[in-house]
Structure formats: structure tokens, C-alpha cells
Amino acid sequence: MQKRFNIGAHYNNWLSVGGQALVKLESLDRKFWGRGVAQIDPKIMEELGLSANDPVLAIGYRRTGLIVLPSDSRDYGRRVMKVDEETLLNMGVTLGDRVVVRKIEPKTAERIVLGYPEDFKGQPDLREVIISIRGRPLCRGNIISVRVGGKIINSAVEDYSPQEEAVVVGYNTKIEMIREPSKVQPKGVPLVTFEDIGGLTKQIQKLRELVELPLLRPE
């Protein structure tokens, strides 16, 4: 069994550095599930200059885009972010893990390709799809909940343009739906490297010493 690497497992001094922060994951209220929403410690929102409904990028083993809301005032200073199961899947992590979150300004997608289940009957109504995900930051490979025909289906973000780390769907975004299995990698396969996490030089060096040196120099 492959040992999972937790960004914050060896670094307990959680900081907000260079416009990003380390947060511990907790469960989101079910009324927000499936909407690409996360609730964050109000103190972190202050530190990162975030307002309600701002987009952020969350980085675990993989990346996902989220819309943030402030969590309860009782969470102030707890350094937590509350997410749903869909978000956990997209990041390849579990509750209790620590991930990096940072504010972003995603561009509006000109075109986006979404995969939908092979067993879905009929063709999804593109107008419903746009309404369902408009304004939500998306990353390539994410699984998202889309409402079509009064039902919720899981759709995979297969591709989009422009080629950015995240995009949002706007009124003029061209949506293409394809019926095929998702290309999303299995949960737990790391796609994020140390180089993906900017602005945490000292912390990354500590992690390299703790994680890499024992492998390179077992003696």
C-alpha cells in the first residue's frame, strides 16, 4: 500500500504565506454539497483578502477550484476549511488532511468539454448544464455535479480553453458534452509536486529533508 503524503503532516506551524494558506479539512454542511463550495476559517479569509463567493484553488494530491464562504465565527483561528465528498475526491485527500488554498482570478472559459455517464439516457440540455455550473471555478480532471432533466449526474471536466490552471463557465462559454468514461485518475495518485506550491520555501525545504533524505540516504 502506497504511503500517502500529507502536505502539513510534518509542519504544525500553519501560516498564510504569499497569498496562500495551509488548512485542515473538515466536513461541510450537507446543504452546500455538490455546489463546488467550501467554508473557510474567517481569519484565513481575512489573511488572504477573500470575500464571500470568491474563487480559490485548493491543492492536495490534485487541484480543484472552489467558491468560498466564511465558516461559523466559532471557527475563527482554527485554520480549517470545510468541504464535501466531491471536493475530497477531486483533491485525492480525506477529512483531517491538510491542503494548500490560495486566491485566484480564473479566466472565463471559451470552450469546455464535459464527459457524462455512458448509462445516461438521452442528451443533456446544455442550457441546464450552463445554469448548473456557471461561475464555478473548474480544473481539468475534476468531477462535478451537474443538474440535468431534474436529476444530478456526475460529469468529468475533460478539457477546456484557454489552457489555465482553472476557468469559470460564463454565458458565452461553448459547452460540449461527450458520452465516455471519465479520465480522472484514481483517488490518491499524486499529481502535485513541491514546485506547484509557491511562496513556502522554508516549509518545503523542511518537508524535503523529512521526506526525501531518508529515501535518498537510508543509512
TrEMBL record:
Gene Ontology MF annotations: ATP binding
Spans through the membrane: none
InterPro entries: Asp_de-COase-like_dom_sf, CDC48_domain_2-like_sf, CDC4_N-term_subdom
CDC48 N-terminal subdomain domain sequence ranges: 22-106
Pfam families with a match to the protein in the record: CDC48_N
Highest taxon, organism lineage: Archaea
Residues annotated as signal peptide: none
Keyword ATP-binding: yes
Nucleotide-binding in keyword set: yes
Keyword entries, A-Z: ATP-binding, Nucleotide-binding
Protein name as it appears in the record: CDC48 N-terminal subdomain domain-containing protein
Origin species: Candidatus Marsarchaeota G2 archaeon BE_D
